[in-house]
Each structure stands twice: as C-alpha cells, then as structure tokens.
Amino acid sequence: MPINHEHQLTLLADILSNQQTDCCGSVAECEQIERLITSLRTNDQIDQNILPILEEIHRYSEQGVNASDLDNHIHSYQDQLSQWVDGINNFS
User: Fold this and answer.
1) Residue 23 backbone zone (phi > 0: left; psi -120 to 50: alpha; other: beta)
2) Predicted TM-score of the model (pTM)
3) Which domain of life, per UniProt (predicted)?
4) Nearest to residue 88, comparing CAs of 14, 1, 4, 3?
5) What secondary structure, in 3-state letters, does the chain show?
C-alpha cells in the first residue's frame, strides 16, 4: 500500500531535517528524496504552492547524488535545509 502525500511530505521533511542536524547523509537518502518528489509532483492533492520548494529540493538531491563530497554538499545547504523543512511543515 503506497503512502499518501501527507506521509510523503512528513518523510521528506524528516530526511531533510536529519541531514540538516547531522550535516551528513547518503546517496540513498538523496535518491529517496528524488523518488518522493517525483511522486508528489504528480499528486493533484498537494498544495500547488509547494511545487517551487520541491523543485529546489530536487535540484539539491540531484547534486547530492553526483557530489564528490556529499557531507560538504549538505553542509553548504544548511540554511536552505532549514527553510525547506519549515516550508514543507507549513503545507503539510
């Protein structure tokens, strides 16, 4: 049974929050972020105002997958990670 969009947003916020707190993450997490966002983009039940945030997060995760130093990549996005989590929480 697939998880609904509210649970997907919660999971996305949790992953981003953990990366922000720990200043580290894994390629698998970045790939999971991409899968979540791909699913959310096609869901007509989500607030369309969250789409720009999802686009930014998707770019971040794509860059993370290809980063030579993922922890440094995550560290360089500390401010945005916090803003994205706040934004997701406002829409979920």
Assistant:
1) left
2) 0.93
3) Bacteria
4) 14
5) CCCCHHHHHHHHHHHHHHHHHHCCCCHHHHHHHHHHHHHHHCCCCCCHHHHHHHHHHHHHHHHHHHCCCHHHHHHHCHHHHHHHHHHHHHHC
pLDDT at 31: 97
Please give the pLDDT value at position 3.
84
Question: How many domains would you assign to the chain?
Answer: 1
pLDDT tens-digit series, residues 41-52: 999 889 999 999
Contact 32, 15 (CB under 8 A): yes
Residues of the domain holding 76: 5-91
